Amino acid sequence: MEKICVVGLGYIGLPTAVMFANHGYEVHGVDVNQKAVDMLSDGQIHIEEPFLQDYLNKALEKGTFSVSTKPAEADMFIIAVPSPIAEDKTANMDYIRAATESIVPFLKKGDLVVLESTVPPRTVLDVMMPILVKSNLEIGTELFVSHSPERVIPGKVFEELVKNDRIIGGINEESSKRTQVYYESFVKGEFILTDATTAEMVKVMENTYRDVNIAFANEIAKISDNVGVDAWEAIRLANHHPRVNIHLPGPGVGGHCIAVDPWFLVEKEKDLSQIIHLSRNTNDGMPQYTADKIDDILKDVKDAKVAVFGLAFKGNIDDIRESPSMEVLERLKAKNLRISSFDPHVKENKAAFQTQSYDEAVEGADLIVILTDHKAFKDYDPKTLGGTMRHKAIFDTKNAISREAYEEAGFTVYRLGDGKGNPKN
To answer: What is the rounded distance in angstroms from the CA atom of residue 362 to the CA atom of residue 355?
Structure first.
């Protein structure tokens, strides 16, 4: 049985590892987080993802999955570590470098190294290759290297690992072909082979397109608030055009991809990425815009309390990386508002003023603010929810609830970009 070593057991690395472990390979997972390693060794997942526990259980039962903080000899090495941005909005390649360095002592003739992390174009050539040559293996003939970026969405990772098309960019054709052989064990989508730098560019482009589109939607929401148009309805109608696909507005953009990857292009070519740069600034400015709206709604309420619902960066997951909710909390704190925060998916208190009980969060509150469109929020009974509030008001930044149901329950309802019910109108 061929062996695969997966470095990085986060939201992408772990599902990928257990998927391979359930499709004919012996997999060794590696992570520097000792707590995560200990939990996985005991058969417990440390991140939330549908079906992940089942896949882990099956792999452990088969004996095809092991985990530690150190790499092991393998035939294929997958690097799936973070590639965040620094405070100055430049790419932090420390994790990529460290992960690549860690596998060098274990490389042997005929091995394959695959980078799955989303990275700036030329990372394979300029960052990884100078490290991999330390293996004393000839790159392209004795050691094969490629970039095959993940293209999945949290909450549907296993479905999309199988169904989505797979981009594979090798440093040469043989590297691409060898990579495809491994992923063919479970991928049903089309395989598209290219070179490494093009593959890197494609993944960054995909997320940048979405960021620019969301920035446009956020501008439409702001304009709609001022001119008295419901942006959500206008976007829905505009999207009936066969060549229009406008995304949805919100309190900001989060996660490890859309909020990060566009900066890779700005860093590479600042003068040529002005639309991208403006879009990033627009979306980064939405938490402040949201906080200002909240402050405006509560301007006549003395000693106001805000109950923030939703800490994850998107609905029905527990991932708070780059979440705009965290920025909104900080902005509200700066306005000296009393705050509570709640998220049904974030089981440990990781945010300011967080509680594990929505009853506790809303008690004595003057306003509920929905920042994440969790399904659970749609299912709450507004009559029960408002029972212990001081003032029954809700500000929905994600169009997540029924306005009519909440108004019938006695709530004053505000919605981002709906053009009505806002203080300026």
So the answer is: 10
Q: What contacts 410, CB < 8 A, 6 or more positions away?
A: 386, 392
Please give the model's pTM, rounded to 2 decimal places.
0.92
pLDDT digits (tens, 9 = 90+) for 315-374: 999 989 889 999 999 999 999 999 999 999 999 888 889 999 999 999 999 999 999 999
Instruction: Give per-residue burial for 393-418: e unless 16+ CB within 10 Å, then b.
Output: bbbbbbbbbebeebeebebebbbbbb
Collapsing DSSP to helix, strand or coil, 172 comes out as: coil
Task: Specify whether 314 is catalytic.
Answer: no
Catalytic annotation, pick one of 58, 109, 134, 257: 257
Each residue's pLDDT tens digit, 181-191: 999 999 999 99
Cβ(268)–Cβ(120) under 8 Å?
yes
Its CATH architecture, for the domain 3-189, is: 3-Layer(aba) Sandwich (3.40)
For the 219-415 domain, the top CATH level (class) is: alpha beta
Catalytic-role residue among 5, 203, 293, 314: 203
Catalytic site includes residue 58: no
